[in-house]
Amino acid sequence: xxxxGKNAVVTGAGGGIGRGIALALADAGANVVAxxxxxxxxxxxxxxxxxxxxxxxxxxxxxxxxxEVGRLADYAWETLGRVDVLCNNAGVVAPGPAxxxxxxxxxxxxxxxxxxxxxxxREFTRRFIEQGGDAHIVNxxxxxxxxxxxxxxxxxxxxxxxxxxLADAFRTEYGDKVKFSVLCPGIINTGIWDAGRNRPAEFGGxxxxxxxxxxxxxxxxxxxxxxxxxxxxxxQNEDFFIWTHPQDIELIEKRYNECRETLxxxxxxxxxxxxxxxxxxxx
Length: 283
Prior knowledge:
The chain is an alpha/beta fold. Helix content is about 45%, strand content about 10%. It is built from eight helices and seven strands. A seven-stranded parallel sheet has the order 3-2-1-4-5-6-7, sandwiched between helices. The longest helix has 29 residues, at about 105-130.
């Protein structure tokens, strides 16, 4: 997809990867609506987008709420005339040992990182199909989507596996009408370490992030602006996977090799006639 003159919506655009994506799309000539649960930050990103001499808008949205996502879509179509790209980027993390994760924090991460992505995909895919023409949806997953071995973020890892699964499932059902991608970033210098500032009261209210995590992201993280350019390139190339760190090839190979080795060990003679399965067997 040539992004020049196209119209995009980016969630979680108030900072970090979302802001990086919004600016990169604008640099490529796209008009952008910046959406975020923090309205003032969404507005700030929209102002930076406008400096690129393209149209911009901003909208406060809690992606957990499907009705709010619908209103975001209404606003985007009214503001831009049509929408061609959605970047489902909003996400949170609450670090801690898996056995210490509270029910509230587990559900909060699932609602933002999985339900929020599904809400965006369902709402915009439906509208893209009705609208016709080229359209593209990018879900922000993670290298955790393929099994990055990091302790202390079990719910987040589970969420990012689900994000990849949603992208693949939607591609299977609607890929002839809408293009789909999953962004799999490694360590990026963002403010996600302090995501707790936006934890709703129903899940325990706001809390301050651990500054040690901030220091780690600052020291080792890639700049979000670079990630944004990679996303813009991925959309233009219609890539399903968008990677930020080439060393993740080791994770891909590890997962593939483990699957292959265990399958060959358990089924040394390969599939037999009794256990062969065709697509018609899956319901």
